[in-house]
Amino acid sequence: MSVSKVEVGTDNSQEKYLRELTRNYKALEKPLKYGPEIDSLQDLITALHKEFDTDYVDIEMVNHIMLSYKSDPSEWRKFAKFDRYKYTRNLVDAGNGKFNLIILCWGEGHASSIHDHSDSHCFMKMLQGQLTETKFDMPYSEDENDSNNNQQYTASELQEIGKTTVSTNEVCYINDNIGLHQVENPSHTDTAVSLHLYCPPFNSCSVFHKNSGKKMSCPVTFWSKYGVREGSKVQD
Length: 236
Fold this sequence. Notes:
This protein has 236 residues and is α+β, with helices and mostly antiparallel strands. The chain contains four helices and 13 strands. The protein has helices spanning 13-21, 41-51, 59-68, 73-76; strands spanning 88-93, 100-106, 114-115, 121-128, 130-136, 160-167, 171-174, 180-184, 192-199, 204-208, 215-219, 224-225, 228-229. A seven-stranded mixed β-sheet has the order 7-4-9-2-1-12-13. Strand 10 (204-208) and strand 11 (215-219) form a beta hairpin. Helix 2 (41-51) packs antiparallel against helix 3. The longest helix is centred in the N-terminal third of the chain and has 11 residues, at 41-51. The relative contact order is 0.22.
């Protein structure tokens, strides 16, 4: 399987265009009637590269591609690296710096923090098991021009706006205009595996404290890349 190994690009017209799309995009509920057939993980990767070859990405087609793939463990198992203590982020394809395709592996009871997506699109497709996604309203800063990543927000507690169970082959979507989310494996007996597409890719995001609304910047790292473990350094 061929993969691209450029992780994060620079500002360009495509990146600006994608960020503009987050203002209104809400996601498809089912695949489009037109579009490429996706019969394998390699088909998915090839189709994504084709869509991102233009500055004006058809984000609905990207959504269609993620919805159309049917999970086949024999294709993605080599990328699925678990850790006993926390969920892992495993890079599958770096999209020539235009997107990141990542497999996340969730042990029993593992959960993410409440976080944003750095003004990018986030598609999450379940490959195995179930995850619970809890969404929260984006809090508003007392000073929107304050660049301090540890600033306090006006909300004393983040407001939950929805909770969804995502099962194998289903896709959920979020961007910062929709809100924040937290993802959790609710099972105490079964692991879960999910496939995430982030566009544009990012190196850090903001995490939020549920009770205080306080946020802080957090780097995002990879547990493995292209099926190979990233040394001995673990992700934050």
